[in-house]
Amino acid sequence: MIPAHFPWMVWAELRKVYTRGSGIGALLIAAVMGLGAVAAMYEAGHNDTAQINGATLADIVAVNAVEVGGWALNARNFFVLPLFLLLATAGTVAGELGNRTLREDLVRPIPRWSALASRMIAVSSLSALTLLITGAVSFLPGLVLFGMPTPGTGAVPVDYPTASQLGMGYLASFASDVGLIAIAVMLSLVVRSVGGVVVTLVLILMADLAVRGVLNLMSLAQIQVAAQLLPWTLGNALGCWQGWSTHFEPMRFLALTVVIVACTAAATARLSRMDVP
User: Which of 21-30, 143-152, 195-204 has the lowest mean pLDDT?
Assistant: First the structure.
């Protein structure tokens, strides 16, 4: 049963997330990434001096609103902004466990899952807003400056990425962020410190990178089981958005769903058994 005052719990968490440094920093970086992609594409589209294999950069780069939105999405998902989302998640769970702010919710006569759900909703909204900001400040100026792609002209191939594909890429990126948030929540209830959550997740991702390297080598050796296992690795699950311009891999989304469900269930079970100091 959902508590009657659950919306107020979500509202309280929203206020905390958007007033902390991690939340404010995430919003600023989202805007910078979008505007930076526009500036980078403008420079690339007007660069007639740099050459690759005899062709200028301006001739090679497809200059249009969809491409600039894709550049912004890649930049947005490159380490820095996911780190701020991780800090925001750890701060609202592990940080509040450390300073005993979370205790106020846990001693109330409400389901403990609601305390967890309100925090996950708040941080997920931060993810959605950063994606909206990055998409808006890259695609809209790109539309004005560069227009939509015209297939078969210049550097734009016939099978160019479309605006709908770009939109699906941003939606897939949100799903990836939710997976990251679910992992961070689970780790926050085990490690119970913001720094510990960040370090632990970095170590997990480094180990996952090593595993993926081994599996890729096995794939090159034509060991079929390696190719079947690759989509189930954590890094590939969190990178499900990367196929937006060509085609998505359904197994990555299935793996991401398993990660989200498993981490959320583990965190909920952990919180339900946790002693309140």
Answer: 143-152
d(CA 99, CA 230): 40
Average pLDDT of the chain, as a whole number? 88
Give pTM, 2 decimals: 0.91
State pLDDT tens for residues 105-157. Answer: 777 777 888 889 999 999 999 999 999 999 999 999 999 998 887 765 555 45
Give yes or no for a contact between 160 and 62, defined as CB atoms under 8 angstroms apart. yes
At residue 98's C-alpha, the angle toward residues 93 and 101, to 5°, is: 70
Tokens 């958007």, residue located: 18
State the Rg of the chain over Cα. 21
Alpha carbon of 235 to those of 25, 80, 188: distances in Å? 24, 16, 20
Half-sphere exposure for 105 (CA within 13 Å, toward CB): 27
Q: What is the pLDDT of residue 236?
A: 93
Distance CA 123, CA 13 (A): 8
Show the tokens assigned to 115.
């305390």
Looking at the DSSP bridge assignments, the partners of residue 51 are 56
Distances (CA, A) of 54 to 152, 181, 202: 20, 46, 41
Q: How far apart are CA 90 and CA 237, in angstroms?
A: 21
Phi/psi at 216 (nearest 5 deg)?
Answer: -65, -40
* Residues of the chain above pLDDT 90, percent: 61
Specify whether the backbone of 61 is left (phi greater than 0), alpha (psi in -120 to 50) or beta: beta
pLDDT of 245: 83
